[in-house]
Amino acid sequence: MMCWRNVEVRRFPYEKYPDHVRDVRNYAFKTLVLQEALVDSSAVLWIDSGLELRAPMTTMRTELAKHGHVSAMQEDLIGDAMLD
């Protein structure tokens, strides 16, 4: 990723936000990270720590260029039977 043009990794300014945002266990920072990044960027690639990349990054790069975002799909762990 770092070899792509116009890619940078940024530090999130936790100090700008209230204590509950600084407590990473409640994940309040996640939407603020995107908000901060989109102030001066047209596209953001968020790869969460729990995400496993199983396809070439070129596919992700193409989707990011085309749509401005990439969303990961997750298998349905609950199942339709639980919804009945």
Roughly what percent helix?
A: 25-40%
Structural class: mainly alpha
Principal-axis shape equals globular
The total of beta strands comes to 0
Number of helices: 3
The total tally of domains equals 1
Please give the alpha-carbon distance between the first and last residues: 43 Å
InterPro entries: DUF1647
Pfam family, one: DUF1647
Q: How is this structure best described in words?
A:
The chain is mostly helical. It has one domain (14-83). The chain has three helices and no strands. The longest helix has 11 residues, at 57-67. The radius of gyration is 16 Å and the shape is globular.
Which key features would you list for this structure?
84 residues; mainly alpha; DUF1647
Helix/strand layout:
Elements lengths: L18 H4 L6 H10 L18 H11 L17
Pfam families: DUF1647
Quick structural gist:
Helix content is 30%, strand content 0%. It is mostly helical and 84 residues long. It has one domain.
